[in-house]
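Apologies for my clumsy wording, but could you write out the amino acids of a protein and the C-alpha cells describing how it folds?
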Amino acid sequence: MTDDPFAGVYPAMTTPFHADGSIDFETLREDAQRLEAAGVDGLVPCGSTGESATMSHEEHIEVVEAVVDAVADVPVIAGSGSNNTREAVELSERSADAGADALLLISPYYNKPEPAGMEDHFRQVADAVDLPQIVYNVPSRTGRNIEVDTVANLASHPNISGYKAASGDMNRITEVAERTRDEAFSVLAGDDGMTLPIASVGGTGVISVAANVAPRPMSDVVWPAIDGDFQTAREAHHALGPLFRALFWETNPIPVKEAMHIRYGAPPTLRSPLSRLSEHLRGDLADVLSALPEAPATA
C-alpha cells in the first residue's frame, strides 16, 4: 500500500449534454454516484474529457458544485487551468469556493511559454489558492512540454502535489519520478495505456478516461501495481488493452461519450466543434464494451 494522497484511480469525467447542448446535470450526478459506488479514489470534472474548452466559467463552477454535492466521500479534483494566468487563478479560486478538494491545472496552451513563464504561471496559482494542485503535461494538446527541471522546481511548493503525465515519453516521466521521489509528490498517468509502465517507475495512479466505463478493472491495474504485484496488474492491463485503444479511435472524448451512451444510456451529445463517433465505429465499440471484464455498475 501507499500513503500517497493521490494514489489510485481518478476518472476524468465526461460532461453530459442534452441534445440542445445544455448540461445534463441529472446524468452528471448519476455518473458521479455510480463511479463512487464502484470504488474509485476520486473524481476529476472539467478536464479535457469533460470538454472544458467549450464551457463558460459559470458552467465550470456549476459542474464542480454538482459533482461535489453528488458524492459522499471521494475527493473532487477540479480542472481549473487556462492559458491565461489570471483566468487560471480566478477559476481555481472559484473551484475552491465550490468545494473542490484539489485542482488539476493544464499547462498554458497556444501561448507556448518558455520554462520561466511556465513555472511562474503555476506558482502564481499555487500561491493564490491553498489546495493541493496537479500540474498537467499534455503537449499533444498544448503545443509545449513542461520541462523536467520545471516540474522538479515546482515540486518544492507546498501546494503543488502532483504531476499528470500525458506526454507518452517514458524517459521524461521516469526522470520526473526519479527527481521528485523524496518530495510529497504524486506522478499520475494521463494515458490509460501508460498506467502500468508509469507505475513501474514510481507512479501511483491514473487520471483515467477508461475508468468512466470500467472503474473496477482500472483499479485492478493500479492497486496491484502499487503493491508490487505486477503479474496481476499486467493481466488486468492486457484485458483492458482493446478498450484503451478504442477510446482513442477518434479524438477524446468522442469515443468515451459513445461508450457511456452504449453502456449507461447517457446522451452521446458533444459540443461543437466535436461531433459524435463515426457511425461505422459504433458497432465495433459496442463489441469492445461487451467483452470488458465487468458488468455495468449502477449507483
